[in-house]
Amino acid sequence: MSILIALTFFVILAALAAAGFFMLRSSGSQEGTEEQAAARNSRMAKALAVRIGVSVVLFICVLLAWKFGYIKPSGLPLGK
User: Fold this and answer.
1) Is 8 helix (H, G, I), strand (E, B) or coil?
2) Which residues contact 1 (CB under 8 A, 6 or more apart)?
3) pLDDT tens, position by position, 36-63
4) If we measure between CA atoms, which residue out of 60, 58, 54 comes closest to residue 19?
5) Buried b / exposed e across 21-52, counting CB within 10 Å, b at 16+?
6) pTM of the model
7) Residue 60, exposed/middle/buried by CB under 10 A (0-12, 13-18, 19+)?
8) How far is 69 from 80, CA to CA, in rounded Å?
């Protein structure tokens, strides 16, 4: 379970990095037509949409794993 969660976090970070790359690439280069700029902005929007979708799926999976008993909250240990 922890490997799946770590892999999902990696996918979320990769999608965020791709969106940042597309954002920097589209703002840094002013050459090209408006269609090319629109295509770069579209790729950035798709990367952000993937990040949001994967984040929502991860959140739902963690809630379901808790509901079905695969993971259990341990809480914070109290200092004695």
Assistant:
1) helix
2) 65, 70, 71
3) 777 777 888 888 999 999 999 999 998 9
4) 54
5) ebbeebeeeeeeeeeeeeebeebbeebbebbe
6) 0.72
7) exposed
8) 29
